[in-house]
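Appendix C reproduces, verbatim, an entry submitted by the partner laboratory led by Prof. M.T., so that reviewers can inspect both the input and the predicted structure.
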Amino acid sequence: MASLRQFARRIELRADSIVENVDRLVRRVALAVDQAVVFETPVDTGRARSNWLVSLVEPRQDEIPPYAPGRRLGKGESANAAAALAQGAAVIGMRQPGQDIVISNNVPYIGRLNEGSSAQAPANFVEAAVQSGASVVRGTRVVVSRI
């Protein structure tokens, strides 16, 4: 009887480990997508880059002013990127297992930027960011051990 209890406990520990590992992977994927989409967003005033907003469960509906506004900042601009990434990392860090992570941008012209309206970024940079998240998943090793 003791061995059956021990077996059940090992299964419970393994299940807990799976939940923790999946949660860690989900966070890593979200961070990778957020980083890619922020850095690939074309920049003029910093408004579009600043508005990559991360939330849990539901997308944000608001639009915020640029963290570090300016004119003709260029894609290499870093202040808005750093602030947007810090906002995203903070929210992603609060995620509980099972919660959706949502990365959204509500500036009215984000679709046009993603379609290639700026020479600073190729068309479909949002889709490319999602692919960077998929590459994190593909690069993850799955370890199965004996019970």
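Residues 2-27+42-138 form one domain. Additional entries are available on request from the coordinating office.
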